[in-house]
Write a structure and sequence with these properties.
The chain has 220 residues and is of the alpha+beta class. 22% of the residues lie in helices and 33% in strands. It has one domain. The protein contains six helices and nine strands; from the N terminus they run ααβαββββαββαββα. Strands 1, 2, 3, 4, 5, 6, 7, 8 and 9 form a nine-stranded mixed sheet that branches.
Length: 220
């Protein structure tokens, strides 16, 4: 009987054939497919930026706690929008009906400092640089003031950047939307219809799969 030699780490690449599955297959099997990814402006108040693990005032593509750097400015195509109220805490609660008592409760609570509550429009965006759909929630007071410039580009492209804001007590950065004139490739029809279906019919559960990073959120 041949001697059963121990495997050497440097020999594993030769002994074990390469996996046939790619990165897309991994993401599809490891992610919560019920939710679209989201875009977030990572300001100095977010946990990863505080820890020095993400560039300040860069946009992130967030999926299942994974944050991919999209840069300081990103071009997106805006396809759709809906109102949203979000409460974070022990449970992550979201609602999309402004007339509901839950939406109004979260909206009222959002005025309290560090409440973990936000409300505002959420947009369905196509990001051509990575060929993916994502949502962009403009739930802070500063973001809501800029949201009209994003809605004005519905069924059109827009460049998302950041702008410096301040009042007598604080200084911070918020999203900024400007006209985008750069042509880019559009998504396939089937992919668009699937994304719109997910966006307009979010999971029935009130508890979201991924929490927004709202640390340091104030009514500003």
């Amino acid at each position: 009987m041949a001697e059963n030699e121990l495997v050497k780490v440097e020999d594993i690449g030769t002994l074990v054939p390469a996996n046939k599955y790619g990165e897309e297959a991994f993401e599809a099997s490891a992610s919560s497919n019920a939710y679209l990814s989201r875009i977030q402006l990572m300001t100095s108040s977010t946990k990863l930026c505080k820890a020095g693990k993400f560039p300040i005032n860069h946009y992130a593509m967030v999926r299942d706690q994974k944050h991919d750097d999209l840069g300081e400015n990103i071009d997106v195509f805006v396809f759709d929008w809906h109102p949203k109220a979000l409460e974070t805490g022990d449970a992550i609660i979201s609602t999309y009906e402004p007339e509901s008592s839950e939406f109004q409760r979260i909206q009222a609570k959002s005025a309290t400092k560090n409440s973990g509550c936000m409300f505002g429009p959420e947009f369905l965006c196509w990001i051509p640089s990575i060929e993916k759909f994502a949502t962009f929630f403009m739930g802070t007071a500063s973001a809501r003031r800029e949201a009209g410039n994003v809605k004005a580009r519905l069924n059109n492209s827009v460049t998302l950047g950041s702008q410096f804001c301040k009042n007598k007590d604080f200084e911070w950065y918020a999203p900024e939307a400007t006209v985008c004139s750069t042509p880019f490739a559009m998504p396939g029809k089937a992919d668009l219809l699937e994304a719109v279906e997910k966006f307009r019919n979010p999971p029935k559960s009130d508890v979201e799969g991924v929490a927004e990073d709202t640390e340091g959120t104030r009514a500003r």
